[in-house]
Every structure is written in structure tokens, then in C-alpha cells.
Amino acid sequence: MSLPPGFLDELRDRVPISSVVGRKVTWDMRKSNQAKGDFWAPCPFHQEKSASFHVDDRKGFYYCFGCHAKGDTLKFLQETENIGFMDAVALLAREAGMTLPERDPRAAEKADRLSELADVMEAAVRFYRMQLSSSAAHSARDYLAGRGLQGAALERFEIGFVPATRRALWDHLTRAGVAAEKILEAGLAIAPDDGGQPYDRFRGRIMFPIRDGRGRCIAFGGRAMDPNDRAKYLNSPETPLFDKGRSLYNLGPARVAAGKSGPLIVAEGYMDVIALVSAGFEAAVAPLGTAITEEQLRQIWRLSPEPVIALDGDAAGLRAGYRLMDLALPHLGPDSSLRFCLLPDKMDPDDVLRTGGAGAMRKLIEGAVPLVQLLWQRDTEGQVFDSPERRASLDKRLRAALAKISDPGLRGHYAEELRRLRAEFFQPQRNSGRKRDFQRRGAFSPSAAPSLAATRATLLAASDGDDVAERMREEVILAILLTHPDLLPEFLPDLERAEMRQPRAECLRHALLHWSDEDVLPAPAQQAADQIRALGHVRIAPPVRHAGDRELARRCLSEEFAKLFARRGVLQEMREAAEDVADLADEGLTWRLRQAAETRNRAERSRLSDSADLGEDRAALSNILQQMIESQVWVKPKK
Fold this sequence. Notes:
- Helix content is 52%, strand content 9%.
- By secondary structure, it is an alpha+beta fold.
């Protein structure tokens, strides 16, 4: 019997799986969290004493970590009551107070038709996989091997190949007895408007099957092997099986993995998903060539209440993040939110994994920022708020965004957080430098975002000492060298000269003097490196954020070392000058020099707050000292 669309989803939603399973098990309330719909019990399918059987009301699934039994409410009824699928549906429908629909001949006909199309798609999967072993697929195999896709990965994702000939799949399927209209209806071939012979839609491409949540192949994605092909990536067209706006790549496996192997990651394409899953991030999905739709967003939230949106680190990725944010705002709730992980510039997840490994990707994911952070970033970046009108305009935009949030409790929390960010942003003096730097940034970066939330814990905010600039400069220099170790030989003389004032920085400096790319830093130095990398002013440094820009790193290192040595030289000169006039000093000289020192300190703190030059004008200070000596500052002015 064919059931109408949405009937089973409504049935499952009406009856929590815990109420069905709870009749067969005894919950371990010490381990369970009833408020979150998270339940644990000894497994009813095998003999055990520990509570390894997990039921998730939110997802509507159960899983046993002992015997690996898994399924939904209907599957549980089938297994425990020893009944068929339709009997389980009828039993659950009675409990939910729903009437089992009468058999619909048209729905049954449609289901049969979809089943036939799914069979055609499976035949195409087998053909494409077989072709990957052919001599014509030599370059395709080399390309896949270069992307790290071999053996188990090829099998897992059922990757195939189609030759560049015009009718390879068509001839194969028709010889196997598949009706021509079914091949066309499945979107595997194109019939010319002039009535000519149909030809394959995909030619000369690496093929990636796209499956729905039930595991049926509903579409294909193809990557062109010819660099001159008009479309590098090509997806199946809309068909009775495939609705692009309602489909997600890797949906079925991600549903099983969500919550077990880290957060759900939403990437931009299926190649990103394959790279993530191969690296151990199995809960990964992607839309198929379009921006995320409202229906896809609902599917994503059914998998995870707070997925991480991993977007390419360029302007297009940022725009995609803003579009998704606007789409999500009206639907946000306590169990429906988003975090955003914008990758380094011109890099996608596959690039990050190939260059930095799973550890680098994990750090980026852990540093993903909440949606409210991206909202604040969009409405403030690149702007100057130097008038009441401009600040009022910002307030108006933020109020408009808040009005879109329908959940009143969440809207209140958003308003509170935005007020905090606004107060911090417009706080005078200490935050003025951060504010101008924030305005100058052209794109939101995961490495820069956390600094906003942690501003009050930064070195600038936490200390008023005279050595703030020097300590910050030391940390930035070390972080740049850690990010660009190939520059170490060039700057080794400067590093040897730059004795660090902080113990952890000095420890790391000593380690870097004897370090090469292949070496592993000693544990104390590695700990110091991790601590320095986590600092807000380090994470927003351009050479650290843009790890691929070697020339930028070289220029910044030259400048930072020069400023560090210049400042130390000035301080040394002032000390020597003070010693030179020590024998002549009296109370008046002491007072005047103290005033000069305080003036210098105030100027230095002002420059720090403006994120401007952290060095000193050595010549100017020398002239000031010379003028003080020539004017006999030790002589008290007469009253």
C-alpha cells in the first residue's frame, strides 16, 4: 500500500519514540536527560546490564552501541512485535489517533513509477562504477588518486566514470532492456528538439551518485575531465525522483553519524563532503549546486539543532553565509540555531584537510561562531559610526533583524547580546583601536571572530603597563614564524637578537632557533605556541589569518622586527641620557623628567588604542632629550 506524502513524518512526530520504546525497557535515569529527549537503557535486543541503548526523541531514532541495532519507531515495533511494516504503521496510527488512509490508486501508481526510475538509476550506478576500471578512465583514476580518493573511499561513495562518447550509457541500458522513456525520465539522457537520437547527459566525467535519506539513488553529480568543458560540475536535472531544493548530499549516512562523530557540518558541495567524511568528519552534508533552501534547512535541523556551516573563505562564501542567516532568522529557536565556520581565504574543506590535516579542520570547526556574531559583523564591517545618525542607522538595522526572530525568549537573548556587543564596540579609548581595525576588515574570518567576544580578556584591555606594545609585538612575530616556518632561515639573525620579555615567548623563541619543518616542538614550547596562537590580537593578525600569503608575512616580519628593535633602542637611549644627567639632577629635574615620561606613556597608550604604529620615533625622542639638556631642565622655574 502506498501512503500519501508526509503521512509517516506526521505519524512519527505525533508519537515520541521514547513512549514506544519505554514500554519495553527500563530507563537509566542517571544517564538519561528527559528534558532534552535523551534516553538510555539496557538494550532490549541483546542481554546486557549496562545502558548502551540510546533513544533520541528529537531525531526519532534508536541505536545500540553494543549490538548496533538501529532504526526508527516503526522499525522498533516491527522488531519487538514481530510484525510487518504496514501492521506497524496501523498500530502506531491507532496510538496517534490518526486514520490510516485508504488505498489511493494514483499514489500507488506514482510509487511504482518512482520505484522503476530508482531501478534505472541503480543500473546507471553499476555501469559508471564498472567504467572507472576501464582504460578510458586512466586520467580519471589519476585525478582521484591525487585528491586522496582510492580503494575504500571509491567504494564507499560509489564513484564512477562515464566515457566521453555520446551514447555509452544509453546503449548499455537499452541493450539491457530498459525502456527509452525511463532513461529520459530519470534525467540520464537528453532528447534533441529536432527529433534526433537521444544522447547521454553526462559524458567524459567522474560520476558521484546522490542518494536520498532512504538510500535510493535519485541523481548524479559529474565532474568534467576536459578543462575546456563549459560546466566543470554538472548535476542531474529535476526529475520525479530528484528535487534539488529538497535534497542533501550524504543525507542518510550523516543522519546516522550526527551526534556521534562531532557536530553536523554543512559544506558547499559533494567533493567537500567526501573530503570531510574521509578525514573522520562523518556527519557532513551539502546542498547540490544551489544556496540552502528553507526545506533543506529544516532537514538539517532535524539532524542537528546547531549545525556548523562551513563556507569557503572568500567574498562569495561570506555572501552565502549572510543569505543563509537571513533565511534562518525567522525559524530560529532554542533547538534550531547555526554556527558559522568561514575557512581561510581561497580555501575549501578539501584544501584545509590536504594542507593541515584533520587537526586543522577540527580547530576551525571548534572556532565556529554563533549566528549573532555574523549578524553583528554584517551590520558593522567596513563602516564608520562617527555621527549619531550613523549609529541610529545601525540600531535600526539591528532592530529589523531582531523583529524577524519569532521566538520571544530567543529574541530577548539576541537583544541582550547585541546590546553587549554594541556597548563594547562603542566603548571609548580601550576599544577604539579594535573598532577601527574591525571596520577595516573586508571579510569575516573564523580566526578573527573570537577576538570580539574575548576583547576584555586581551592584553590591551587587561593591562595598562608600558610593555604592552612590546609584548604584543613579540607574540605576533612568533605567531607569524609558526605560520610561515619557511621564513625562519631568512629572519634567524633577527630572532637571535630579539630576546623576549615573557618567559613563554622566550621559551618558544629558543625552540624556533633550532626548529625545522620536520621537527616537533618540545612540549613546553608547543604549549607556549598554542597559548600564543589563541590570543585575540594574534588571531586577527593578517599574516596569521592569510597563511598562504608568504610575501605579506615577509613584509610584516621585517616591519615588526624593525619596530621592536627601534623601540628598545629608544628606551635604552633614554636610560643612558638619564644616567648622564644624574649628577646634575635635583627635584626640578626629577619632576620635569617624570612629566616627560608620563607624556610619552600616554602617547604610547593612545597609539596602542588606535591600532597604529607600536614603535617610536627615535630621532624625535633624541632631539627632545637634547633640548631638555640644552635648556637646563634641572633649573626650577621661578614662581
